[in-house]
Design goal:
One of its GO terms (molecular function) is phosphoenolpyruvate carboxykinase (ATP) activity. By secondary structure, the chain is an alpha/beta fold. About 30% of the residues lie in helices and about 20% in strands. Bound molecules: adenosine-5'-diphosphate (ADP), phosphoenolpyruvate, calcium ion and manganese (II) ion. Calcium ion binds next to loops.
Length: about 675
């Protein structure tokens, strides 16, 4: 089909081409057209006159360059001067860089980057210089005094003799060029996105995420069974940090991104990402909040720094290492080191873990949820594990998108932590998800997708590289994004589960105790791919729908959620975006349009006042009708052909729920004894 189309297009072009040629004066074979040397009918608008009656071969102005090199130098305009240095600084409010010259500011910035990259054993940062090493002019001689580079006090070692070039907050266009020139597997797709490969790891490696245990974190953090925080000591962290920093400094150039997290300006943090790949720099450019040039000038010292040396493995002879991958967080040093994985999601989710530590300390609840808002200001949260529909369902053409994955709930309302979205691409189509499909354009990063060698058309159904194909794009690529990404207190809290057992109803209305029970339980069937090594869906429990990212005990987050939901009167819902009519392999996944209709009925308030029945075992309230959804699927028992197998499956899942919840039964949720008892009773009855 496509070939036919192309062929006939080509025929048309040829036909058009020849007809145009025919209508102009065709040069007769063997007779070349005469060269004109006289002005005849030059357009009157042309600003210059012919000299000595000799006409130039071109009707435009001559180029203002004497040589080819000069011509090339004209092509690139220097960026507009950065915002003027503020002079009106009072003695009471001197800002960090307010009274300094542009040169001094640049020097301080490079000094800060050099300090970030400092070796802790040699106690010095590398010699850093701004700009691409391929532009030789910018590589200074060491004795030259040049404001573009910074030389720290260097102890004797060969690594101290070279410069590390810093590609600082490059634009997407510059990053495209860097990726395409220097990184294998980088291509521009037909829609303008940058296609890249993340290497051997195409998903996160939760079993390789380590957190430094020290005198503070011993008591503060959640350790042990079920916790994502695999311990490591400070010394081992420093060994890995040194390995990453030495690797990065051995390169000709590194990328540095200085950006923000959290749209709530009172609770924003400054992050620095040092990475070796343009792909990683563009990914974080999309995922974090992009500073304005003025904000960048006043950036100062970051609150948290990532060293991404993902191409380089960790050393398995190092204590605590169980593979060649390690993602290490040190809260005291405010640093994270990545070795042995190039999957970009580690950076995004690593920072999310950090927010899960920092925000609750301020009484702010961090949420692994999507978030959107109706035209009347009604906010909905979409909690759920990977693949349950946070990104898909929060991206809704009829509502404003606040964010697809990571939020904060403070006394001021909700705020997105990030500046972009990270959508799954498997089986993506314009028809099913037009807004996400259209966001995959110039500036978007497309990970691990397969495309036609010639047309660069992406085949979203192709799983040859991985099932976890991904697109990262700035949030403003979604047409109805809410910028700034903040909103009032949520009205609906939707818990998403992708139930591979097919026994949970497509929608149920939850009591407060049930909401807490299901929030702490965090059930889903993990969909293939996002976590490395998972190929088939399997039942999973992940506390707070994000056990891989929370840092404190789950009951801390649960207590905060209960308090906020009560205070602001939010309603909890459980939505199964997984299977109906049988388990995975027998039934089928609930159709996305049905789920959207369910979600619409929640947003509109229709589902608050409708008829409900209660299910056995889980005791869930289910509506008897939802507009645009076949009534027979609303009660899963009706959708199953074999009722006996349904009941067995239901009991099996209920048993897994009970078993999972045992560890939480000895904990109290906040200061409320009654709520704790109610939560324990809100689980399945068997
Ligand atoms: N009924 C449904 N509801 C939500 N998503 C569905 C449904 N059926 C299929 N899907 C697919 O499941 C995936 C959900 O993934 P995503 O929205 O990225 O989840 P998350 O953001 O929670 O990780 C998407 O690929 C989506 O197209
Ligand atoms: C980036 C991730 O998020 P999600 O799959 O929830 O979109 C992830 O879990 O690796
Ligand atoms: Ca997620
Ligand atoms: Mn998502």
């Amino acid at each position: 089909m496509a070939t036919d189309g192309q062929a006939s297009n080509m025929d048309n072009n040829l036909a058009n081409g020849s007809s145009v040629a025919a209508s102009a004066q065709p040069p007769r074979r063997g007779v070349l057209p005469r060269i004109q040397t006289r002005i005849t009918t030059m357009a009157a608008s042309k600003p210059y006159k012919a000299e000595n009656n000799i006409c130039h071969d071109d009707s435009s102005r001559p180029v203002k360059a004497q040589t080819i090199d000069e011509l090339h130098s004209l092509q690139k305009k220097r960026s507009a001067p950065t915002t003027p240095i503020k002079q009106e600084v009072t003695a009471q409010s001197p800002t960090a860089f307010s009274t300094i010259s542009e040169e001094e500011r640049q020097r301080l910035q490079l000094q800060s980057i050099s300090a970030s990259l400092a070796s802790l054993t040699r106690e010095s940062g590398p010699k850093v210089v701004k700009g691409d090493p391929k532009r030789k002019l910018e590589t200074p001689k060491a004795h030259e005094q040049h404001h573009q580079y910074f030389t720290p006090n260097i102890s004797t070692s060969d690594s101290a003799l070279k410069f590390t070039h810093i590609l600082y907050n490059l634009s997407p266009a510059e990053l495209y060029e860097q990726a395409i020139k220097y990184e294998h597997g980088s291509f521009i797709t037909s829609s303008g996105a940058l296609a890249t490969l993340s290497g051997a790891k195409t998903g996160r490696s939760p079993r390789d995420k380590r957190v430094v245990i020290d005198e503070n974190t011993t008591d503060e953090l959640w350790w042990g069974k079920g916790s994502p925080n695999i311990e490591m000591d400070e010394h081992t962290f420093l060994v890995n940090r040194e390995r990453a920093v030495d690797y990065l400094n051995s390169l000709d150039k590194v990328f540095v991104n200085d950006q923000f997290l959290n749209w709530d300006s009172e609770n924003q943090i400054k992050v620095r990402i040092v990475s070796a790949r343009a792909y990683h720099s563009l990914f974080m450019h999309n995922m974090c909040i992009r500073p304005t040039s003025e904000e960048l000038e006043n950036f100062g010292t970051p609150d948290f720094t990532i060293y991404n040396a993902g191409q380089f493995p960790c050393n398995r002879y190092t204590h605590y290492m169980t593979s060649s991958t390690s993602i290490d967080i040190n809260l005291a040093r405010k640093e994270m080191v990545i070795l042995g994985t190039q999957y970009a999601g580690e950076m995004k989710k690593g920072l999310f873990s950090v927010m899960h530590y920092l925000m609750p300390k301020r009484g702010i609840l961090s949420l692994h949820s999507g978030c959107n808002m109706g035209k009347d200001g009604d906010v909905a949260l979409f909690f759920g594990l990977s693949g349950t529909g946070k990104t898909t369902l929060s991206t809704d053409h009829n509502r404003l998108l606040i964010g697809d994955d990571e939020h904060c709930w403070s006394d001021n309302g909700v705020s997105n932590i990030e500046g972009g979205c990270y959508a799954k691409c498997i089986d993506l189509s314009h028809e099913k998800e037009p807004d996400i499909f259209n966001a995959i354009k110039f500036g978007a990063v497309l990970e691990n997708v397969v495309f036609d060698e010639h047309t660069r058309e992406v085949d979203y159904s192709d799983k040859s590289v991985t099932e976890n194909t991904r697109a990262s794009y700035p949030i403003e690529y979604i047409p109805n994004a809410k910028i700034p990404c903040v909103g009032p207190h949520p009205k609906n809290v939707i818990l998403l589960a992708c139930d591979a057992f097919g026994v949970l109803p497509p929608v149920s209305k939850l009591t407060m105790a049930q909401t807490m029970y299901h929030f702490i339980t965090g059930y889903t069937a993990l969909v293939a791919g996002t976590e490395d090594g998972i190929k088939e869906p399997q039942a999973t429990f992940s506390a707070c729908f994000g056990a891989a990212f929370i840092m404190l005990h789950p009951t801390k987050y649960a207590a905060m959620l209960a308090e906020k939901m009560k205070k602001y009167g939010a309603t909890g819902w459980l939505v199964n975006t997984g299977w109906c009519g049988g388990r995975y392999g027998v039934g089928s996944r609930i159709k996305l349009p049905y789920t959207r209709n369910i979600i619409n009925a929640i947003h509109s308030g229709v589902l608050l006042n409708t008829e409900y029945t209660k299910t056995e075992v889980f005791g869930l309230e289910i509506p008897t009708v939802v507009e645009g959804v076949p009534s027979e699927i609303l009660n899963p028992m009706n959708a199953w052909e074999n009722k006996k197998v349904y009941k067995e499956t239901l009991l099996k899942l209920a048993g897994l729920f009970k078993q999972n919840f045992e560890v939480f039964s000895k904990y109290k949720i906040g200061s409320d004894n009654k709520l704790t008892e109610e939560i324990l009773a809100a689980g399945p009855n068997i």
